[in-house]
Amino acid sequence: xxxxxxxxxxxxxRRLRDVLGAQSKGQERLDQITHLIADSMRTEVCSIYxxxxxxxxxxxxxxGLKPESVHQTRMKLGEGLVGRVARTSTPVNTADAPAEKGFxxxxxxxxxxxxxxxxxxxxxxxxxxxxxVVQSKTARQFSDDEIYxxxxxxxxxxxMTELGAFTSDEDGMRALHRQPVMFxxxxxxxxxxxxxxxxxxxxxxxxxxxxxxxxxxxxxxxEAVGQLRVSVDDLLSVESLDKDQKQVLEAYRMxxxxxxxxxxxxxxxxxxxxxxxxxxxxxxxxxxxxxxxxDAYLRERLNDLDDLSNRLLRILTGQxxxxxxEMPENPVLVARNIGPGELLDYGRKLRGVVLEEGSVxxxxxxxxxxxxxxxxxxAGRISMEALNGDHILVDGDxxxxxxxxxxxxxxxFRDKIAxxxxxxxxxxxxxxxxxxxxCGTTISLHMNAGLMADLPSLEGSGADGVGLFxxxxxxxxxxxxxxxxxxxxxxxxxxxxxxxxxxxxRTLDIGSDKVLPYMKPNDEPNPAMGWRAIRVGLxxxxxxxxxxxxxxxxxxGRALTVMFPFISEFSEFQEARAHVLRExxxxxxxxxxxxxxxxxxxxxxTPSLAFAPKAFFELTDFVSIGGNDLKQFFFAADRENERxxxxxxxxxxxFLSFIDQxxxxxxxxxxxxxxxxxxxxxxxEALALxxxxxxxxxxxPASIGPVKALLRRVDLVQVRGVIEDARAKGDDSARPALMxxxxxxxx
Length: 747
Ligand code: PEP
Ligand code: MG
What we know:
Blueprint (H helix, E strand, L loop, with lengths): L2 H19 L4 H16 L3 E9 L2 E8 L10 E3 L3 H9 L3 E3 L21 E9 L2 E10 L7 H19 L18 E4 L1 E4 L2 E8 L14 H23 L6 H14 L2 H12 L4 H18 L3 H22 L13 E5 L4 H7 L5 E4 L7 H8 L4 E3 L4 H4 L5 E5 L4 E4 L3 H22 L6 E2 L5 E8 L6 H6 L3 E6 L1 H5 L7 H15 L3 E5 L27 H6 L1 H15 L4 E8 L2 H20 L8 E7 L2 H4 L3 H6 L3 E3 L1 H8 L7 H4 L7 H16 L4 E3 L7 H9 L4 E4 L1 H11 L4 H14 L5 H10 L3
Parallel strand pairs: 9-10, 10-11, 11-12, 16-17, 16-23, 17-18, 18-19, 19-20, 20-21, 21-22
Antiparallel strand pairs: 1-2, 1-6, 2-3, 4-5, 5-6, 7-14, 8-12, 9-13, 13-14, 15-16
Helix pairs in contact: 1-2, 1-4, 5-6, 5-7, 5-9, 6-9, 7-8, 8-9, 10-11, 13-26, 16-18, 18-19, 25-26, 25-27
C-alpha cells in the first residue's frame, strides 16, 4: 500500500470510529458513513446493503442513489451484482456495470447512469452481513489499492454491524443475534428440551476495530504471533507425538511462521485496523477462499489457518477457549461438530445438543442417545448465530431448533414437552409387564449402555438386561489408556448395578470414527472398512487380553457374557474366543475365581458372517446383529454420510430378506439371536424384526416403553403377512404397507 493511501485510509477509519462513538441513531450513522466513504473514495455513490434475513439484502443507506429507494430496494442473495458479491464473498469490480452479466436494473435507485461499480462483502469470519458498494459515472476499473481500502472499511463496518451500531427499530433493522431464528436440521436423537445456549467454541468479540496508533498495534500483533509460534513449538516438542500428528503441527508451524500472513495483517493495521480486526480480516478472506476451493487437501490447510487465526484472536483479546463464562442453567450445547469423547466430557449436564454437521450414525450421536439427550444435526449456521446464554428450544423429533423463540412458540413447545412427559408416564406403567404380543410371543427387550450413568436406566426402563455394553466409551472418556485394575472395578460396578441381569460386554470397538486420543490415529482412506474393532484386537492383542482379564476379575464368580465386534469370518471368532479361554486358564492359575457361567458371542456386522460355515453358528453362544454397521455394508452406504444414509430404509425388503436368512441360519443350530443396532429402538422397525423371528432386541433405554407398547398391541403373524404381501407386490420397502396396516389398527 502506498503511504498516501495508508494515511487516507487511517483518516477515514478514524472518522468512521467517531461516527460510531457519537450518540446517534443507527440510520444516521449509516447515512454519515456512506457520505464519508463516497467523499474519501472520490466516487459519486456509496451504498450499504445489509441482510434483512439470510436470503435478502436491503439497501440501508446511500450517498448518490435516490434517497426514496433506501429500505425499499431489496434483492435476493445472488441476484444482481450486489447479490453476487454477497453470494461469492468476493469483490466485483467493473468499468461497465450495466454490461456485466447478472446486472439487475432497479429504476427506483437511478443507478443506471453510473458506469463503474465496485462492491465488496461486509463479512465477519465467514458470517455474511452485507455488501458495501461505490459507483461512479466515469467508466474505469478500480485499482487494487482502492479495492483493498474498501475491504478494510468493510471490515470495520462488519464489526460495527456485529456490535449493533446500525440497529434501529423504525425501519425494522433489528440487531444481530437478537431476533428469533428457526433452524431446520435433521433428527439425531428424538426428544424435546428447553434451555440456554452453551457454545462449545465461544465466539471472540472484538470491540475495537479501529486503532489510532499503528506502531502499538504492530507490536501487539508481533508479540501475539510470537506467542502463537511458541505455543505451536511447545506442542511439537511433546515426545509422544506420532508422525501424523507431527505433520499436522508442522503445517500449523508453517502458517504461524508465514511471512505473508504477518505482512498482510501488518498492512491492514497500517490502514487503520486494530490488531484484532486485522486478524479477522485475513481470516474472513481465507474463509471466503476456502468456500471456493474444490481440493479437499487445500481446504484442510485453509482450515488450519482458520484455527490458528482463532488462537491468535484469543491471545490478543485474552478471551481463552475458557472465557470464564458460567455454564447457563439447562445448557444446550451448540457447535459445528463434536466428537464422542468431548460430548462425554459434558455428560448429563446437557439438556440438548445442536450441531451444524454430524450424522445420525456417528458415535457422537450414539453418545447423545446413551445420555438420552435430544440431538439435532445439520442445523445450518447456528454456531454463527447463537450467543452463549440465548434461550433455545430443541425439538429433536422434528429436527428443529428455535433460537431466541417468541413467547407463543415457547408456550406451544412447553405443551409438547408436557404431552411427552405424559406419554413417558404411560410407558412407565408398562415397565413391569412383558413385551407379550397378541399372538402370545414374548420378546425380550434389553438396553444398550456404555457409561455408568446409563445403569440407573436398567431399573427405570424395565429392560431385561444390557444387550450391548459399548466398552469403548470408557476408553473414549479418558486421556490415557485405562489400567486393568480400573477396568475391573468399573466392570464389577456395572455387574453390581445389573443385579444379576445379563450384561453383554462388547470388547473394544475402536477405529472408524472412534479415535482414542492416546492412540496413534491411522491415516486410512476408508476407516469404517479399515483397521477397527476385532481386527485391532487380534493384530495387537495386548489391550484385548487386558480387557478380558478385567472382565474375568470383575465377574468374580458371577456369570459373564462377552461379545466380539465386527467379526467377518469364522477364524476371527475362533481366534478371539481362544484368547478368552487362554486368559481363563491364566487367571485361574493366578488364583482368581472364574465366572459361574460364560457366554462368548459374535456381532454380525458384515454380510460375510451370515454366510460363515455351520461350525461358526455351532461354536458361538449367540449372535447379535449390529444393524448400524450391517446396514451400512449391505447397502454400501456410509452410516455417517447423511446424503447416502437416508436413501436406504431398514425396512427395505432386500434387507429384511437378508435378516430372514440370518434368522434361518441361527435357527438351524439353535443359536440365540438378537439385534442391537439403533433400528431396534424404533417401534415399527422393532415390530418387523419381531415378525421375522427375532426374540431379543437391544435399544436405548428410552425406546423400551414405546417399543413394548406397540408390541403388546399386535399379532406378529399378521405383521409377517403384511411384510409378505409387500414383498409379493414387489415393493422396495415394507414401510408403507406396515404404516398403512398400523393406521387401520387405530395406531
Ligand atoms: C452396530 O453397528 O449396529 C452396533 C451396535 O455397533 P456400533 O453402533 O457401536 O458400531
Ligand atoms: Mg457396529
